[in-house]
Design a protein that fits this description.
Low-confidence stretches: 76-88
Radius of gyration: 14 Å
Number of helices: 4
Distance between the termini: 28 Å
Shape: globular
Number of strands: 2
Structural class: alpha+beta
Strand order of the largest sheet: 1-2
Length: 107
């Protein structure tokens, strides 16, 4: 699925956001290598962000791991450190997405 969709999106010059989780489920990844593999399936110059839709069922540790793994996956890019806010994890993710999107537009 990823290869076909990425090919179509990039072929059409469409920027996209990888969105996971939501009311119907949660997203987590148990290792840095697994997360990098997941991201690499969707990676292209048109990937402008990752949206972790955190509704319920994910602990602060899982959320922090996702943030850390996202930072590790983008280690080559200069970006500010992201610190999870236990009061509003969804807001933190939206802020992270906006920061990634701004950096991509500048390139």
């Amino acid at each position: 699925m990823a290869a076909a969709n990425v090919s179509r999106l990039t072929g059409a010059g469409i920027n996209y956001i990888l969105s996971t989780g939501g009311a119907a489920g949660t997203f987590s990844c148990g290792s840095d290598a697994g997360f990098a593999s997941f991201i690499n399936r969707w990676a292209s110059p048109n990937l402008i962000g990752i949206d972790f839709d955190i509704e319920a069922g994910q602990s602060q540790t899982v959320i922090s791991d996702l943030i850390r793994r996202t930072q590790a996956a983008h280690a080559g890019a200069s970006r500010p450190a992201v610190q999870p806010d236990p009061g509003d994890a969804g807001q933190q993710q939206r802020s992270e997405h906006r920061a990634v999107a701004r950096r991509r537009r500048r390139r």
